[in-house]
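[Discussion] Sanity-checking designs against the backbone

I'm trying to build intuition for which residues belong where. Below is a structure token string of 263 positions. I'd appreciate it if someone posts a full sequence so I can compare it with mine line by line.
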């Protein structure tokens, strides 16, 4: 099942059940990018069309499994300018994912600080592809990666940065927030190249911010630029931030993650 087909199951009611598919595994759970996108799609039905998503925070409470899941949405506050919406994914009567979507209306302001442009990263054709090895998570075959900064996971590379280019391999749809969430979370945590042998890792929390509307006329099959930096890592946890640009250097998102690593 394609990414967009999974999201298409979700309908406007505030409480509903959906079927989570096989084929999108990440260790012992479903890929976090798809579960986060499901939560966003459900939240989006509760938002005003005059407000755009400004920030989306996800707590990965427990492993989400293929099969039936229940979605629950609550509007915490709906104001003229800002709306806050909470979403939960529930399986076996337990919350396995909790998310908060913050929507805000654009308004005039005397403050305007432009985003920094991406540095001169080599093009996708010069990057390193992920090799076809069994250790790769199941979901990765839906994506095309090119590493241009740092190195592959488990290579003992000690750089603070990891980045390059990304796109969907076989899905060509107009880009939206859900598809972008899947792209951003598809990258391995920036901590993994520091390890010299395979070890489990997963996102504990994820906040992604959107400074503006997504670029027009861009598609999921286009190349998108990604650069993550490790802020601090110790005691089995890492804290990272990342910037995401389109292929013309327009900033589209700022991502921040707390990652657990068992190595």
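Best answer:
Here's mine. Compare freely.
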């Amino acid at each position: 099942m394609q990414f967009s087909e999974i999201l298409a199951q979700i309908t406007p009611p505030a409480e509903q059940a959906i079927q989570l598919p096989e084929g999108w595994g990440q260790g012992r759970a479903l890929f976090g990018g798809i579960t986060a996108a499901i939560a966003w799609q459900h939240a989006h039905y509760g938002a005003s069309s005059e407000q755009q998503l400004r920030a989306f925070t996800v707590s990965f409470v427990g492993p989400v499994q293929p099969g039936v899941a229940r979605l629950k949405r609550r509007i915490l506050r709906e104001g003229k300018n800002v709306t806050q919406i909470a979403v939960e994914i529930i399986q076996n009567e337990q919350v396995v994912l909790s998310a908060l979507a913050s929507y805000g209306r654009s308004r005039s302001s005397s403050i305007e600080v432009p985003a920094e442009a991406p540095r001169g990263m080599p093009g996708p054709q010069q990057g390193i592809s992920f090799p076809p090895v069994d250790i790769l998570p199941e979901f990765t075959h839906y994506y095309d990666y090119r590493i241009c900064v740092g190195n592959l996971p488990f290579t003992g590379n000690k750089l603070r940065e990891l980045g390059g280019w990304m796109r969907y391999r076989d899905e060509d749809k107009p880009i939206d927030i859900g598809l972008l969430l899947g792209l951003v979370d598809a990258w391995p945590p920036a901590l993994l190249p520091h390890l010299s042998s395979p070890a489990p890792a997963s996102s504990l929390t994820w906040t992604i911010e959107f400074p503006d509307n997504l670029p027009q006329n861009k598609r999921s099959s286009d190349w998108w630029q990604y650069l993550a930096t490790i802020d601090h890592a110790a005691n089995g946890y890492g804290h990272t931030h990342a910037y995401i640009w389109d292929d013309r250097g327009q900033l589209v998102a700022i991502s921040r993650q707390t990652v657990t690593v068992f190595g």
